[in-house]
Design brief:
Elements (H helix, E strand, L loop, with lengths): L2 H15 L14 E3 L7 E8 L2 E5 L3 E2 L4 H15 L2 E7 L1 H9 L3 E12 L11 H12 L3 E5 L7 H18 L20 E7 L2 E11 L4 E9 L7 H15 L4 E3 L3 E2 L12 H18 L1 H9 L5 E10 L6 H10 L5 H15 L14 H9 L3 H11 L4 H12 L5
Parallel strand pairs: 3-5, 10-11
Antiparallel strand pairs: 1-2, 2-3, 2-4, 5-13, 6-11, 6-12, 6-13, 7-8, 8-9, 9-10
Helix pairs in contact: 7-10, 7-13, 11-12
């Protein structure tokens, strides 16, 4: 099947079965696709890193077919000698995979907004309304941009400049896997909302459809380093209003990584929960996990839904963490990735309790899996892990200061 025809096939399946908020992004060309050999209608999108097949969200199929479809994919991975993982699955998929014997880690929570009920009235939104009014007084406005109807070269130039600033700040290219991109050269079914000041783009968000939930996922945001106070709040609330007028039922700002304040998960073991805490606190300065959670919470979600990492074999191996980082940030700095892995694993490796059975290997074997099997490679990598550049530490301080103003 040609790439063009396959994209059409996957899009048709998404329109019929796409439930996961980020499912539209399986159309990005970094994915491979698995189809059932037994006639199940659906697709599983995946990326392979470090002999880990990382599936992107839920299988795109009828919910009643998830078990049998995953069974086929799991056998396919076994035949290839890959670990089988599903990243950021929803609660309905988690229940099925848990029954199938997959290991499970909660990796975040997603705020869901019922647009029909969304309102900013009441005392709990007083601060939010104040920020929005302040932005309006400074002359900011929000519009939906329709590049397929009419191109605005000056706006697109501004948007490209904002993306370039973001890439420079990040230190590598765009994220991938379940995270989208501006894609102004090929918008397809994306939506674009712009915050304008004197007809110049101060910030913009890119949204994708969540087909079976009549919803919209707020995927990518780009903004100037310094923007008027209240700009992000105005941008999102006005976008909600426009979407509500267009008849959409649901919106989501995406998963708040490594937060679990709202969804009870009694199966979460102490050792894995501590690993998540370590990642939240030590890794957060690279992607601002805590500020993201607080930023999304201020809009008053109707509910929060858990998102999970499922893996087979059931014993957790930290090479999965490396593969996870690598699929999202394939061009990222290797030292940063290794430092993140080492920081999290050093903490949890000290714990001795009943949940130790969840751990499948030592940090030494992880290093071998990442860098090669030779003793020299292991020695070199260990040395690298202890030589963290000062610039990474400085970057962590800078990002911590940028708290709620996402």
């Amino acid at each position: 099947m040609s790439k063009g025809n396959e994209a059409i096939t996957v899009l048709e399946l998404l329109k019929k079965y796409g439930y996961h908020s980020q499912s539209y992004n399986i159309l990005r060309n970094d994915k491979s696709y698995f189809y059932s050999s037994s006639g199940i209608e659906g697709v599983i999108a995946y990326v392979v890193r470090a002999n880990v097949a990382m599936a992107a969200g839920d299988p795109v199929c009828d919910p009643s077919d998830i078990r049998n479809f995953v069974t086929e994919f799991k056998q396919f991975c076994k035949d290839q000698k890959w670990r089988c993982c599903f990243q950021s699955i929803t609660e309905r998929c988690k229940d099925v995979l848990g029954e199938m014997g997959f290991g499970m880690i909660k990796i975040g929570e997603e705020p869901i907004f019922d647009l029909e009920e969304f309102s900013l009235s009441g005392s709990k939104f007083r601060s939010l309304r104040k920020n929005i009014n302040q932005a309006k007084r400074q002359g900011l406005s929000v519009v939906e941009y329709h590049p397929l109807l009419k191109r605005e070269p000056e706006w697109e130039k501004d948007m490209e400049e904002l993306s370039a600033i973001w890439k420079k700040f990040k230190g590598s290219g765009e994220f991938s896997f379940l995270i989208g991109e501006p894609a102004l050269d090929n918008p397809k079914e994306r939506k674009y909302f712009l915050a304008l000041l004197d007809n110049k783009v101060e910030a913009f968000v890119v949204c994708t459809p969540v087909y079976t939930r009549n919803g919209i996922y707020f995927d990518v945001m780009r903004r100037k380093e310094k923007t008027p106070n209240g700009m992000p709040q105005l941008l999102f609330t006005e976008s909600f209003r426009i979407l509500k007028e267009q008849g959409y039922s649901m919106a989501t700002l995406g998963t708040a990584p490594l937060s679990y304040e709202h969804v009870d998960d009694p199966g979460q073991s102490r050792i894995i929960k501590l690993a998540i805490n370590l990642a939240f606190n030590r890794l957060g300065y690279f992607h601002r996990f805590k500020p993201l959670y607080r930023f999304k919470r201020q809009f008053g979600p109707s509910s929060w839904e858990g998102r999970y990492l499922a893996f087979s074999p059931k014993l957790f191996n930290p090479v999965i963490l490396y593969a996870l980082l690598k699929v999202y940030d394939p061009t990222g700095v290797t030292k940063k990735l290794l430092y993140q892995l080492n920081s999290a694993w050093k903490g949890i490796s000290k714990i001795k309790d009943g949940s130790i059975g969840l751990i499948g290997s030592t940090s030494g074997s992880v290093i071998k899996g990442i860098k090669g099997t030779s003793h020299k490679a292991v020695k070199t990598t260990k040395k690298t892990l202890h030589e963290i550049p000062d610039k990474i530490k400085r970057k962590s301080i800078k990002l911590k200061r940028r708290d709620n103003d996402v």
